[in-house]
Write a structure and sequence with these properties.
Layout lengths: L2 H11 L3 H28 L12 H9 L2 H22 L8 H22 L1
Helix pairs in contact: 1-2, 1-5, 2-3, 2-4, 2-5, 3-4, 4-5
Protein name: HEPN domain-containing protein
Organism: Gimesia panareensis
């Protein structure tokens, strides 16, 4: 499986009501997160084992590069992480614009991936 498969799946399920939108947001984040880990491991030579369960390490590493595309990817990844937490854990909070929320998450993940492709 490739990290991009998460983003593809997110785009396919986003239209299935609130659960689809929330699930798409989560999948979009994980697609971008795993893609970022792959780039960091390739470019910076960081061992995947160092990541452990830390979701902050890719953002930290990308911010340290000083590269404009990496900085944009770090921003997008951080935003996606916040959106994923809201989608996965704050299910009692109303989300009046469900479809747009999920679609925007998918778009952000794709943009993050584009930024990272330039870095790698």
């Amino acid at each position: 499986m490739k990290s991009e498969d998460f983003i593809t799946t997110a785009s396919q399920i986003v239209g299935f009501g609130e659960a689809g939108s929330r699930s798409a947001t989560s999948r979009a984040y994980y697609g971008a997160f795993h893609f970022a880990k792959e780039v960091i491991c390739d470019v910076a030579g960081i061992e995947p084992a160092r990541f452990g369960r830390s979701h902050k390490l890719p953002i930290y590493c990308l911010n340290k590069t000083g590269d404009d595309n990496a900085l944009e990817a770090a921003y997008l990844l951080g935003n996606l992480q916040s959106r994923r937490i809201k989608a996965d854990y704050k299910i009692k909070e109303p989300n009046p614009n469900k479809l747009a929320y999920g679609q925007y998450s998918v778009e952000q993940a794709l943009e993050c991936q584009r930024c990272l492709e330039v870095v790698s």
